[in-house]
Amino acid sequence: METQVLVDNGQTVVLGGILTTEELRQIAKTPLLGDIPLLGRLFRYTEESNEKVELLVFITPRLLDDGLTVR
């Protein structure tokens, strides 16, 4: 893949990103009591969570003269 982007000196451009989604389901219970049919529901619970993470890549090009040093 090849992409060309025109940007003014010192302007920022977003190249792209990565989006990840994670779904978690966790069951916690009291030992033995949580395993009893029907009554076990009183001694356990289920926790569900969703997590989304987005990573973006930002680039800010800066032109330098040959006679100048980089700070």
TrEMBL record:
InterPro entries: T2SS/T3SS_dom, Type_IV_pilus_biogenesis. Residues 2-64 form the Type II/III secretion system secretin-like domain. Pfam families: Secretin (PF00263). GO terms for biological process: protein secretion. Belongs to the bacterial secretin family. This is Type II/III secretion system secretin-like domain-containing protein. The lineage of its organism: Bacteria, Pseudomonadati, Pseudomonadota, Gammaproteobacteria, Oceanospirillales.
